[in-house]
Amino acid sequence: MNVTSALSRLKPLLRFHHYLVNYCHALSQYWPRPALQLHSWPETALFTEYFLMRRRLARPDTHVSPPPEPTLTKLPGLPAAPSHWWLVLCRMPKQGNTLDECEDAWAFAYDQECQVCEDYDEHVRRRLRWPTLHNRLTLAISDGASDSFAPAQWARLLTRQAVQDRIVDCPRERLLRWLRDLGEHWRASLDLNNLPWYAIEKAERGAHATLLVLDLAPNSQGGTATWLYKVLAIGDSCLFHFRNQRLQAMFPQIKAEDFGASPHLVASNHDYNKRHLTQQAIIRGQGDFEPGDELWLMTDALAAWVSQACAACTRMPNIRMRDIVTFFDQLRKGNRMRNDDVTLLRLFWQQS
Q: I want to staple 210 with a disulfide (CB 3.0 to 4.6 A). Which of 11, 225, 237, 351 is the partner?
């Protein structure tokens, strides 16, 4: 190999050396340090500076945090279904009679309001609704004894005054005084001048009727929505308390075959009440009412049928409330309920 060919092969290496020296001088402007002196060709120096340069130019190791998770905005769900209290009132005479001849009566009082059955003589069925029960609700029904004098007027007077005076918690002596005053008011309203002697004698014996009073109030104890009810019963008008479609309680507890016997009665005659209205004759009870429960107040003819139905399967019987007249007529025609005046008050809470 001659000198010319050796120099021609050396020229590219010299150019690379010249380029590397200029590049190192340029880097020294950004990293102040002594300039690199690459005038010799030791292989170790050349490669050492090459790897040092790569280390300087390399990006520093940094921890890359993961991107934040997207924030999910919760869309508003469906609004809660509104809840309502329902009170269904049914009053139906025996077959062959008009509603004016019905000897049953009902009344209720709630939030400074009192309504009685006389206000709805043209309606067999009435339905009322409240968004909530924040005060006491008092219901009363009465079944006038047909063999007494003016039992319908006495039953109406009993129910109206019972819900206005809230007599559920009255002890016996106070209850007797209340009935004495009520009997005097009933006798004062009678016109006996044009009556025959036997009617006057019957009026002196007085009027008789059963009485069932229910008082329902919010229960302030505990954090759950419950209501406490109290009941006072004289006679065979009954309260049925259903929970989860099953019978929870019954006041008074009467077997189906015992209806029709001589029940205890409330009289307009004070002497009769003192003799017959003993502590055992006055039935009292109470219980907790929860959302979804139902309270049924009814007179004896319907109470006997419901008592028999519950004894057979312990489940709440299905009463067709929308066609109550036809339903009661079918029970009578099938001899499942005797032909008598019928009153039903159905109180329940549900979401609509």
A: 237
**Three-state DSSP string of the chain:** CCHHHHHHHHHHHHHHHHHHHHHHHHHCCCCCCCCCCCCCCCHHHHHHHHHHHHHHHCCCCCCCCCCCCCCCCCCCCCCCCCEEEEEEEEEECCCCCCHHHCCEEEEEEECCEEEEHHHHCCCCEEEEEECCCCCCEEEEEEEECCCCCCHHHHHHHHHHHHHHHCCCCCCHHHHHHHHHHHHHHHHHCCCCCCCCHHHHHHHHHCCEECEEEEEEEECCCCCCCCEEEEEEEECCCEEEEEECCEEEEEECCCCHHHCCCCCCCEECCHHHHHHHCCCCCCEEEEEEECCCCEEEEECHHHHHHHHHHHHHHCECCCCCCCCHHHHHHHHHHCCCCCCCCEEEEEEEEEEC
Does this model's pTM top 0.85? My answer is: no
